[in-house]
């Protein structure tokens, strides 16, 4: 049973998302000022803040994603900026080496962060605006095995599809993922209202 306060928090997140999404469409000329109000309410009443996504397996993000693969619940974000994505968050992003594929990695740094290598031969550098650095959770893997920013470098924030907030490895092994404290607080009402484990099980290819 979802409490009234949780519903209010969820509605506030959804309304903010609807406004941001509609404003973005308006600024790029996809809709006009008259259509913007309709777009806001349509998104608010008919849209969702999450979607399930099947992810291929591998050791890079175990145990968040099982080596055999699994389904994750992804929260949509209207603006891919450090105001909505935080260091420590697990994100779904376009594979820098295979743009048609999606991968899950952890956000380790965002624009303005100075990156210093453990190899003294590498010069330190600062991440440019709208760039981020993503890493695999399995620290024992080498760069080629982990397939993270150590291999392909900084990633454009625009390549991020959303924040992973729940992971279903099997029908009996699932739960919220360990994101930044701020993100987990923000996503709590979204999970309370939109999480449907049975639907995620149907989407799972296991």
TrEMBL record:
Transmembrane segments: none annotated. It comes from the Eukaryota. GO terms for molecular function: serine-type endopeptidase activity. GO terms for biological process: signal peptide processing. Signal peptide: none annotated. PANTHER family: MITOCHONDRIAL ATP-INDEPENDENT INNER MEMBRANE PROTEASE SUBUNIT 2, OSJNBA0068L06.9 PROTEIN. This is Peptidase S26 domain-containing protein.
């Amino acid at each position: 049973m979802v409490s009234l306060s949780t519903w209010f928090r969820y509605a506030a997140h959804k309304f903010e998302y609807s406004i941001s999404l509609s404003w973005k469409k308006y600024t790029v000329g996809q809709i006009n000022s008259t259509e913007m109000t309709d777009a806001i309410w349509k998104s608010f009443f008919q849209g969702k803040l999450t979607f399930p996504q099947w992810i291929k397996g591998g050791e890079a993000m175990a145990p968040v994603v099982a080596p055999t693969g699994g389904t994750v619940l992804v929260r949509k974000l209207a603006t891919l900026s450090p105001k909505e994505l935080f260091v420590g968050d697990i994100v779904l992003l376009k594979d820098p080496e295979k743009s048609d594929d999606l991968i899950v990695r952890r956000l380790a740094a965002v624009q303005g962060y100075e990156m210093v290598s453990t190899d003294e031969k590498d010069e330190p550098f600062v991440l440019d605006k709208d760039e981020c650095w993503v890493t695999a959770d399995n620290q024992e893997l080498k760069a080629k095995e982990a397939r993270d920013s150590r291999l392909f470098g900084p990633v454009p924030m625009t390549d991020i599809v959303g924040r992973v907030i729940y992971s279903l490895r099997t029908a009996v092994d699932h739960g919220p993922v360990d994101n930044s404290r701020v993100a987990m607080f923000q996503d709590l009402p979204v999970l309370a209202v939109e999480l449907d484990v049975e639907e995620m099980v149907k989407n799972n290819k296991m």
